[in-house]
Design a protein that fits this description.
The protein is built from 5 helices and 5 strands; from the N terminus they run ααβααββαββ. By secondary structure, it is an alpha+beta fold. Strands 1, 2, 3, 4 and 5 form a 5-stranded mixed sheet that branches.
């Protein structure tokens, strides 16, 4: 069976006409829009030119010339007046004081120089802490360390109990180099302190210290180290 369409229901019939009418209407609207925008630009341009012309009208004025004031008149000359004194006029005697008179008056008092205080000599029993030449063990510091290490006996009781440390022993070196006033300054243990005193007391004579070229008594201290092997 063949299907038949009605001429009124055919949509392709008026399609080309509708497209043509749409294009005509669009072009008309576009043309009207261009005409309207050009008119606004001309009006705005005319107003700006008017404003510029009004602003350029500036009045130019010149300052008035001022006349300088007339110069002041010169002061009248002053005549010098000289007074002549006759030689017969007697003048009163005037004492004139000079700087020499003041110097003589200042030298009336006799200058007494200050008394010279002689320094008192230190007594033989005075013990110095620091002197120009300090006491020294025979052979120097290295010989002292060697002597202490060789002659110190580590107490057995201290070894068994694991006691060790450094004992500082102080003493006085006499003018003849002998060692006196031996005492423990910083101890560790009674057994170690006793041994340190013993070994220091057995040291030979030292070279005494000197102050101003003379032997003096000087306090000294040495450490005795006890170290477990």
């Amino acid at each position: 069976m063949e299907v038949k369409k009605s001429p009124k229901a055919d949509l392709e019939r008026g399609k080309s006409m509708s497209i043509l009418m749409g294009m005509i209407v669009g072009l008309a609207v576009l043309f009207v829009g261009f005409e309207w925008s050009n008119r606004d630009i001309e009006i705005a341009t005319d107003q700006g030119v008017g404003d510029i012309l009004v602003e350029d009208e500036i009045e130019i004025t010149r300052p008035e010339e001022q006349t300088p004031p007339p110069p002041l008149p010169a002061p009248p000359p002053v005549a010098e007046v000289l007074t002549v004194v006759e030689d017969d006029v007697e003048l009163d005697d005037v004492d004139i004081a000079s700087s020499e008179d003041d110097a003589r008056a200042a030298q009336v008092d006799t200058y007494v120089p200050p008394a010279v205080v002689e320094e008192e000599e230190e007594s033989a029993d005075h013990i110095f802490q620091i002197v120009e030449k300090m006491p020294e063990f025979p052979g120097g510091a290295a010989a002292l360390t060697k002597y202490l290490n060789k002659n110190t006996n580590y107490p057995i009781i201290a070894q068994e109990n694991g006691i060790h440390g450094r004992v500082t022993v102080g003493f006085v070196v006499n003018t003849d180099g002998s060692i006196v006033d031996i005492k423990v300054i910083r101890g560790v243990d009674p057994s170690l302190d006793k041994e340190a005193l013993r070994v220091v007391s057995t040291m030979p004579k030292w070279t005494p210290g000197e102050q101003r070229g003379k032997p003096v008594r000087v306090s000294f201290s040495v450490p005795v180290v006890f170290r477990l092997q």
